[in-house]
């Protein structure tokens, strides 16, 4: 497989879901810090490596603060390893929000940096469960728009990931359906529990013996480029995430797999133990 196709496909995957959804899971520097009565929540810092066909194509750093009622997260996605010499991606994304019972309610989402050959910036605010794009640069005129009615109730990628981690921490389970909007594309995300399982081999690190597995299916439904009528990216993208308690950080995502319709299996593996900072 040509390396440029591999890199561009991996970038598209992380842009549309993880990373990150990614990235899940996902540092940049500091993140918004939800407050609590007895002080400031500790910041959890995690690092991940993204592999496709055995090659390290992306690196993810993330820092987040997560309580029962609030969250703040910042994530940076960069091309990594040998492939960083041929194609540059350097994106920083951030999100803030809170939880209302079992529901996540995002407040802000921002993504900025170098991707697909130029600097790009998208900002979204949320009012009454409606995502409102306040900045998109450059405007992509070759892409279909997403009607406002279809965006109602949609959340951003990072908020979806924080909601999943919040579920795992509070209930030791996972499940549900979300609409995910990144400022241009609308997707569906379905999650269901798959029980405790030994973490698969194949990554550079193994953590513990058993982890909570959550299976998911992500599928873009709107916001396609006009030229992508027959694109395989319209197909569902099934995946799996493993969460494990690691030291003081508590439950963290230690491994994620996504079955990409063009690139095959994408694997995201935690690189080193999570760190705690004030």
UniProtKB/TrEMBL annotation:
Q: Which domain of life is it from?
A: Bacteria
Q: What is this protein called?
A: DUF3108 domain-containing protein
